[in-house]
Write a structure and sequence with these properties.
The chain is mostly helical. The chain has one domain: Farnesyl Diphosphate Synthase (Orthogonal Bundle). It has 16 helices and two strands. A two-stranded antiparallel ribbon has the order 1-2. Strand 1 and strand 2 form a beta hairpin. Helix 3 runs antiparallel to helix 4 and helix 15 runs antiparallel to helix 16. The longest helix has 28 residues. The two termini are 22 Å apart.
């Protein structure tokens, strides 16, 4: 399997679905829809929705059933980035090589665009996407839990509170596994829930998602030190400047790389039971831990 082609095809599938569900700029009030679309279509890799679709591939399912959840996950991820970039949070001027939402539309509209994307994500999930209320409810619960104070928001809060402080490895692991890892883990689990994977399969998918989510954030930490701004699309060195808690900051660069390799190997082991059907997940893991942007 050629990973670049796989990513391109799945990204196009997700982008078309997002274009259908997000109101057009002609829909009143147009400015909020324009702001939402500005950030959604600003060049994201669509990693979270692609992970959901990859599980659909693994379970040999019709991928159209997975697209509503895939879109919802991407909208929640995008809302979190819009809010993270605000002056009250990380105060970033650029995201993916483009001006951040609040730099184009102002802070008030950026807050509302993020709110609107979060709200629309759950509206989409209520449209009886799966013709099985039990599946719909489980998907919504999974995504809500990963997005709230027991997941992404909780991790963000502890991350903010830890700036400029000396923290231990347990707190750092909490930040990384919640702030970034929770939504990645949920992206994989949601695919399993929609595809009605059995308990053993779902357990293995869960472990894969956990390993990949933590590895993904450690790579982000490393890239903030060693990455190229042109590839990443925003300033590097900001974690150090803001005295953020990072894996290299606590453990060092080489131990960080070693940890990524361990997590990568564990993610592969987790999906061994799927044999050849797990190829997409394995290649995605390799791509994500070796990325330079």
């Amino acid at each position: 399997m050629e990973i670049e082609l796989y990513l391109k095809e799945r990204k196009e599938m997700v982008d078309k679905a997002l274009d259908r569900v997000i109101p057009s700029e002609e829909a009143y009030p147009g400015i909020i829809h324009e702001s939402m679309r500005y950030s959604i279509f600003a060049g994201g890799k669509r990693i979270r929705p692609i992970l959901t679709l990859a599980v659909g591939d693994l379970l040999n399912q019709d991928l159209s059933r997975f697209l509503p959840a895939a879109c919802a996950l991407e909208m929640i991820h995008c809302y979190s980035l819009i809010h993270d970039d605000l002056p009250a949070m990380d105060d970033d001027d650029y995201r993916r090589g483009k001006l951040t939402n609040h730099k184009v539309y102002g802070e008030a509209l950026a807050v509302l665009a993020g709110d609107a994307l979060l709200t629309l994500a759950f509206e989409i999930l209520t449209r009886d996407c799966y013709n099985k209320p039990g599946v719909t409810l489980r998907v919504m619960q999974e995504i809500a839990s990963a997005s709230g104070t027991s997941g992404m928001i909780g991790g963000q809060v502890v991350d903010l509170e830890s700036e400029g402080k000396s923290i231990d490895a347990n707190i750092l692991n909490y930040i990384h596994s919640k702030k970034t890892g929770a939504l990645i883990r949920a992206s994989v689990r949601v695919g399993g829930i929609i595809g009605e994977a059995d308990e053993q399969q779902l357990g293995r998918l869960t472990r894969y998602g956990e390993c990949l989510g933590l590895a993904f954030q450690i790579i982000d930490d490393i890239l903030d030190i060693e990455g190229e701004e042109e590839k990443i699309g925003k300033k590097t060195g900001m974690d150090t400047w803001k005295e953020k808690a990072t894996y290299p900051g606590i453990h060092g660069i080489e131990p960080a790389r070693k940890k990524v390799k361990e997590l990568y190997n564990e993610s592969l082991s987790a999906v061994e039971i799927f044999e050849a059907r797990g190829e997409a997940l394995k290649i995605l893991a390799e791509f994500l831990v070796n990325r330079d942007y």
